[in-house]
Amino acid sequence: MNIITVTKENLQQEHICCAISNKKDCQVIAKKSWLAERFKDGLVFKKGDVRGKCFIEYIPAEEAWCPIEAEEYMFINCFWVSGRFKGQGNSNLLLEECIKDSKEKDKEGLVILSSKKKIPYLSDPKYLRYKGFKLADTADPYYELMYLPFDKNTTKPCFKQTVKKPSIEDKGFVLYYSNQCPFTAKYVPLIENVAKERGIKFKSIRFEKTEQAQNAPAPFTSYSLFYNGEFVTNDILSDKKFKKIISEKGL
To answer: Cα–Cα distances in Å, from 43 out to 50, 174, 186?
Structure first.
């Protein structure tokens, strides 16, 4: 498999949105718009020359949309290889590209958001440990910040203290999200409509700038749902899944 580096110049021609093939899909448009604004911050998007989920996206940690302290590291936003592209060494190939590029840019290592066990939208901790990543820090209820230092004397990255125990003061449902993940463009309006139809207090807040995301109340800034101040999930919910949560809350 050949690796393609997506740039502002070829962004509109390349297939970049997971399994979404329609260029006019709201999810594709939202994601490409988000990427276009991030290239100036040093974002890199590398993908296999295929139409599917086989890519790695990373950015200097100082510009990452994640509430962490990781100076001189490269932060991996998203690393996804699935379906027929698994088991062929493609994950290793993409990670090696990221490591090579990061070393050439004099970074101290890689840092990535993961979890105690594999859960949706977070990188697989088992694979990361297999590739030499170490645990840098944790945050409730299941987040793990993993890092791969290029030198034994590098400083260990960490979460900002404000997200160690995610909580907010607002009552009702509050959703923080961004278009870093294309799926939010489709699924956020669906649950907004469910809340409106049910007369349930609901507020959605979309991060539009790096500073906003870096001061988020939870580690995963693509999608974090709270209810009455308590963190609920990072899973990007369908209307069916959201209705189940509503039921569980007795609403």
So the answer is: 21, 29, 24
- Distance CA(190)–CA(42), nearest Å, equals 33
- Distance between CA 203 and CA 224 in Å, rounded? 12
Task: Please answer whether residues 206 and 177 qualify as being in contact, where contact means their C-beta atoms are separated by less than 8 angstroms.
Answer: yes
> Residue 185, class by beta-carbon neighbours within 10 Å (0-12 exposed, 13-18 middle, 19+ buried)?
buried
pTM: 0.93
Structure tokens that stand for 56 in this block? 């790695």
CA distance 189 to 225: 14
**Element housing 174 (H / E):** strand 173-177
User: How many beta carbons lie within 10 A of that of residue 208, not counting itself?
Assistant: 12
Structural domains present in the chain: 3-160 (3.40.630.30), 163-248 (3.40.30.120)
Tens digit of pLDDT for each residue in 110-167? Answer: 999 999 999 999 999 999 999 999 999 999 999 999 999 999 889 999 999 999 999 9
- 205-241 per-position pLDDT tens digit: 999 999 999 999 999 999 999 999 999 999 999 999 9
Query: What is the tally of helices (H) and strands (E) in the chain?
Result: 6, 13
